[in-house]
Amino acid sequence: MDIIHPLKSLPGAKSAAARGSVSVYLQLARPHQYVKNGFVLLPLFFGYKSAAPQALMSALWAFAAFCLTAGAVYVLNDIKDITEDREHPRKKNRPLASGAVSIRNAVIFLLFLLAVSCSISVALLPRQFLYILFAYLLLNVGYSFYLKQIAIVDVICIATGFVLRVLAGGVVAAVEVSHWIIIMTFLLAIFLALGKRRDDLLLADNGSNIRKSLSGYNLEFVSMSMVSMTSVVIVAYLLYCVSPEVIQKHGTHELYFTGFWVIAGFLRYLQLTFVQKRSGSPTMILLHDYFLWAVIGGWISTFYWLIYVAGH
User: Fold this and answer.
1) Whole-angstrom Cα distance, residue 253 to residue 300?
2) Tens-level pLDDT at each residue, the chain (312 residues)
3) Which of 177, 188, 219, 267 could tie 170 with a disulfide, CB 3.0–4.6 Å?
4) What is the dihedral of CA 247, 184, 61, 103, to 10 degrees?
5) String of DSSP letters for the chain
């Protein structure tokens, strides 16, 4: 006769074990999304501070603070959307929606992440950084509770969050952030956010109730907007490459060569969006698409060679 362990016989035993698992809380904070916070490091690269120890260390602390704050925001968003997430074909497996983490424990975890982030900011980074981080937090709280329900405003909020990351990186590295990098960051983020909305629309067509803001979108509008933003970003980038002040700053007339990588990257993303219908998570695409790895690696290598070796 088989002997059944008493805990295994209880219906809640498996979920109770999951609640005590560190991996469940990591999943709740969504660390795979932290690649977005790499925008904090951009001013280092463009401002010739990549090899400056103090600037690099400050930028890494800023990156960590943004990751912790972003994790708290993801927890808040999951608490707010727990009912909707349970109806979503993918989000229903998230820790809160699936019941692996209780709302009470999620709130405690959220406060812990914010406390550590604020401690790092106050102790190790300039006061201006804390202001930017606070603005980022307020923007995302507003986004989670209301702004994401308004079409167009929702993607603008996402893009603004990316711009705040770049501004924060400039503050901690003591680098003046040019209008070019702000413009291109904003435009690129809108493009990626539109791709996410397109994926939401496809899920809604399959009978899933996704988000209220989708009433202000349809596939034709989002698809046309993505194509338009592709053109705008590429033109803006090429204008940046041939801009007199940029040529003077970097000491080279040949930055336009990096434009070939940018064009290839956008074409690949459009292919993934319209042909393969994989625009749901830009972060997951970036982490798993080898073509985009090659494009980004080529762009970084070419840009580095032109401004650090051939240029200044």
Assistant:
1) 17
2) 343 343 343 344 344 444 447 888 888 888 888 999 999 999 999 988 888 899 999 999 999 999 999 999 999 988 887 777 777 777 777 787 777 888 888 899 999 999 999 999 999 999 999 999 999 999 999 998 888 889 999 999 999 999 999 999 999 999 999 999 999 999 999 999 998 888 888 877 665 555 566 778 889 999 999 999 999 999 999 999 999 999 998 988 999 999 999 999 999 999 999 998 876 678 888 888 999 999 999 999 999 999 988 765
3) 177
4) 180
5) -PPPPTTTTSTTHHHHHHHT-HHHHHHHH-GGGGGGGGGGGHHHHHTT-TT-HHHHHHHHHHHHHHHHHHHHHHHHHHHHTHHHHTTSTTGGGSHHHHTSS-HHHHHHHHHHHHHHHHHHHHHHS-HHHHHHHHHHHHHHHHHHHTGGGSTTHHHHHHHHHHHHHHHHHHHHHT-PPPHHHHHHHHHHHHHHHHHHHHHHHHHHHTT----GGGGG--HHHHHHHHHHHHHHHHHHHHHHHT-HHHHHHHT-S-GGGGHHHHHHHHHHHHHHHHTS---S-HHHHHHH-HHHHHHHHHHHHHHHIIIIIII-
